[in-house]
Specification:
305 residues, mainly alpha
Length: 305
């Protein structure tokens, strides 16, 4: 995979800027009056999504041409989620392999589905609860042996494990280098605790910022796939949003282009993206819940190179 030097330099600048913005906004949210904390939380939802987009670049090896620099910058970006770089890389590449397969059809009702689990997972995504579940999940992995994870996965049952994706994602953890993957997760905790101690972050300020980030991040994670074709590479959307917002998210909304060309950096995606549905059109449709394929809404998708 080839990443230009200019892209790598820009990514480093963005990483430093997002890091500084996150520190400043968490400090402001912890020490400002309520209205200032609300503004800081809203801005943190943007800056930390830029950070997540940079983590996404690192996962695909598109942050920098040097593998070590790519990995270490990915670890720093992961600290802000917080998660471990190796875990995120394994999960995300699993997603690319399984996209729109039966284990990732969260928007689709099938005969035999565990309905309470289907709806619980779906609305956890669109209310932002997906983010704390993801964070708690990686720390649970870091603190427990394999057999505990296996017992937990068994609680879903075979059907529940398939329809929720738990079987694939929990199983993928066994392929990680166990010590280093766990150290990255504990490193993320140490990173957060260090800055909280140094800058006097409060629980209220921290939770306000991460609640705003979690809602924005979680909503996008399936809006860009919801009701799309059941196809690994074509099962996504190029979502229309204001240009400034797409810049903040580093073209993450151009998700169909990314799934078709996962080797490309975020700067190259617009050349491969056609006109897709508006983000809010798909997002609002999602709030009606999962449905059968014949009841899927139809969204227009422009021509893609």
């Amino acid at each position: 995979m080839s990443v230009s030097v200019s892209t790598a330099k820009l990514n480093l600048i963005l990483l430093a800027a997002a890091n500084a913005a996150n520190l400043l906004l968490l400090y402001a949210a912890s020490h400002a009056p309520w209205w200032g904390a609300a503004v800081a939380a809203a801005l943190f939802a943007l800056s930390n999504n830029t950070m997540f987009a940079l983590l996404h670049e690192s996962v695909h090896g598109s942050f920098a041409p040097d593998r070590r620099l790519n990995a270490w910058c990915g670890r720093l970006a992961a600290f802000w989620f917080p998660t471990g770089f190796a875990v995120q890389r394994m999960f995300h590449l699993t997603h690319h392999r399984n996209n729109r397969s039966p284990s990732e059809q969260f928007d689709t009702l099938h005969d035999g589905d565990v309905l309470w689990l289907k709806y619980a997972q779906w609305y956890a995504i669109f209310t932002g609860l997906y983010w704390p579940c993801a964070v708690i999940g990686v720390f649970f992995y870091a603190a427990t042996p394999r057999f505990v994870r296996r017992r937990l996965a068994a609680l879903f049952g075979r059907r529940g494990g398939l329809q929720s994706g738990a079987e694939d994602y929990i199983g993928s953890l066994d392929r990680l280098p166990q010590l280093s993957a766990r150290l990255e997760i504990f490193g993320a905790a140490a990173w957060q605790l260090f800055w909280a101690w140094l800058f006097g972050w409060t629980w209220g300020g921290w939770m306000a910022c991460y609640a705003a980030f979690g809602f924005a991040w979680s909503s996008l994670q399936y809006t860009d796939h919801a009701f799309s074709p059941f196809d690994c590479k074509n099962g996504a959307w190029n979502l229309r949003v204001p240009r400034w917002l797409r810049a903040v998210f580093l073209n993450y909304h151009l998700h169909l282009a990314h799934h078709r060309h996962p080797e490309l950096s975020w700067r190259e995606l617009p050349r491969h993206a056609g006109e897709g549905p508006h983000f809010f059109t798909v997002w609002l449709s999602c709030w009606r819940g999962p449905r059968r394929p014949e009841d899927f809404p139809v969204f227009k998708q422009g021509r893609i190179e």
